[in-house]
Specification:
Number of helices: 9
Helix content: 25-40%
Strand order of the largest sheet: 4-3-2-8-19
CATH topology of the largest domain: FAD/NAD(P)-binding domain
Strand content: 15-25%
CATH class of the largest domain: Alpha Beta
CATH architecture of the largest domain: 3-Layer(bba) Sandwich
Length: about 325
């Protein structure tokens, strides 16, 4: 309550211009998935002027999900419906949302500068919540059956395949983890891999090879997903023998990797070797002089939330939690030391 009162008092002062008559926002949020929209709810509730740069395709990965069964209090809701509720919630408290793509940022000095394909903006703080994109196979039937048997998240969708026959595409640790999760629900799990050995860690391979429900199809690639209203078969080809065959499956989980949406932030904040945004890092001690901001990037005043830094959990609820944390850090940052 004290923080809210301070923010309210501060916002009675006129908003400073960002140059050339540009309005300077208290908080600019880049991204409109669960992390970005939750951050917008908390920022506006903290009486901060807030703009959400949602992108032309707003809503994040959940816009591609048919049923979400693990979001608290909303079992069975569709992905697009959940995101619409989050969007409406943020707008209710005064966030402004623009469906524009970000084209450039400048975090070298305050106020921070953000350029979209239609306008220039400035802000006293920024929350990056651009997420990470699933790497899909790009084969026929994939788009049509996505959310209808074709998935990329076993912790999200495994319960829908209880007693079913499923496949996992991939050979890294993530693929091994997905396969092991699926054994708790499915009758059988087939790992399809394009090489003759996995690249996963030895300990993860050992767990997979010891699991009786899991079998492996080596040296094979997916050519097509087949089915009308839902996945029914997968056509795979053995790349050594050149033979193709169709196998019946109820579901398939594609785990060949993710790409964090951080290209535009290269040179602005620190990224790790995989391209994910680094939290705090080398500036941690310097930041701590102003108070510890757990969701800070390596640039004070620029925060991060969701899958754009979290490559472990990748859940809507964890992304929303990180959005809450980032917004609370941003509000405290705006108050100064």
């Amino acid at each position: 309550m004290v923080l809210f009162d301070k923010m309210t008092k501060r916002l009675k002062d006129p908003i400073r211009a960002g140059g050339e008559g540009i309005k300077t926002w208290d908080v600019a949020i880049i991204g409109s998935g669960p992390a970005g929209l939750t951050a917008a709810i908390y920022a506006t509730r903290g009486a901060a002027s807030t703009i959400v740069l949602a992108g032309e395709a707003w809503g994040g990965q959940l816009m591609l999900t048919t049923i979400v069964d693990n979001y608290p209090a909303l079992p069975g809701i569709s992905g697009p419906e959940l995101m619409q509720k989050m969007r409406d919630h943020a707008l209710k408290f005064g966030a402004e949302l623009v469906a524009e793509n970000l084209t450039a940022v400048d975090f070298s000095k305050l106020p921070f500068k953000l350029t979209t394909n239609k306008q220039k903006l400035t802000s006293k703080s920024v929350i990056i919540a651009t997420g990470a994109q699933t790497l899909w196979l790009g084969v026929p039937g994939e788009d049509k059956l996505r959310g209808r048997g074709v998935s990329s998240c076993a912790p999200c969708d495994a319960p829908f395949f209880k007693g079913k026959k499923v496949a996992v595409i991939g050979g890294g640790d993530s693929a091994m983890e997905e396969a092991l999760v699926l054994t708790k629900y499915a009758n059988s799990v087939t790992v399809i891999h394009r090489r003759s050995e996995f690249r996963a860690s030895a300990i993860m391979q050992k767990k997979v090879f010891e699991e009786k429900k899991i079998k492996v199809v080596w040296d094979s690639i997916v050519e097509e997903f087949l089915g009308e209203d839902k996945l029914q078969r997968i056509r795979i080809r053995n790349i050594k023998e050149g033979e193709s065959k169709e196998i019946e499956f109820d579901g398939v989980f594609i785990t060949i990797g993710y790409t964090p949406s951080t290209e535009i932030f290269e040179g602005q904040v620190e990224l790790d070797e995989k391209g994910y945004i680094v939290r705090n890092s080398k500036l941690r001690s310097e930041i701590s002089k102003l108070g510890e901001y757990r969701m800070s990037t390596t640039v004070p005043g620029v925060f991060v939330a969701g899958d754009v830094h979290d490559y472990h959990y990748r859940q809507a609820i964890t992304a929303a939690g990180f959005g809450c944390m980032a917004a609370m850090d941003a509000l405290r940052y705006l108050e100064g030391p």
